[in-house]
Amino acid sequence: MSQRYVLSVLIADRVGILSAITAGVTDLGANIEGISQTVVQGYFTVIMTVVFPQAIDEEAIRAALLNRFHKDEAS
After folding, report:
1. Contact assessment for residue 11 and residue 75, using Cβ atoms and an 8 Å cutoff
2. Which of 4, 20, 29, 36 maximizes the CB count within 10 A of its CB?
3. Is 36 helix (H, G, I), strand (E, B) or coil?
4. Sign of CA dihedral 25, 27, 28, 30
């Protein structure tokens, strides 16, 4: 049974952020269905809808994303 999530990430803007975020979710098997991104006063924000082919724990998603960044770099 597939599982849909809406993810939101806030991080200081720098090169490679979107690549890291998308790799974090696709490495878990997710399909990205929609994405919105913007940069405001040096902060990159992204909101995306993703669908996983099977149930997955929210903490596993959070860990997969945060592991792509330095400690306390993203929230």
Report:
1. yes
2. 20
3. strand
4. positive
3-state SS, one letter per residue, for 5-27 = EEEEEEEECCCCHHHHHHHHHHC
User: Per the structure block, which two tokens stand in for 56?
Assistant: 């997955």
Q: Kindly tell me if the per-residue pLDDT of 58 is higher than 90.
A: yes
Compute the distance between CA of residue 26 and CA of residue 15 in angstroms, rounded to an integer.
Answer: 19
Both tokens assigned to 50? 């993703």
Q: Rounded to an integer, what distance in angstroms lies between the CA atom of residue 49 and that of residue 39?
A: 19
The pTM (predicted TM-score) of the whole model is: 0.85
Residue 30 near residue 52, CB atoms below 8 Å: yes
Reported as a single tens digit per residue, the pLDDT across 16-40 is 999 999 999 999 999 999 999 999 9
Q: Across-strand partners of 10?
A: 45
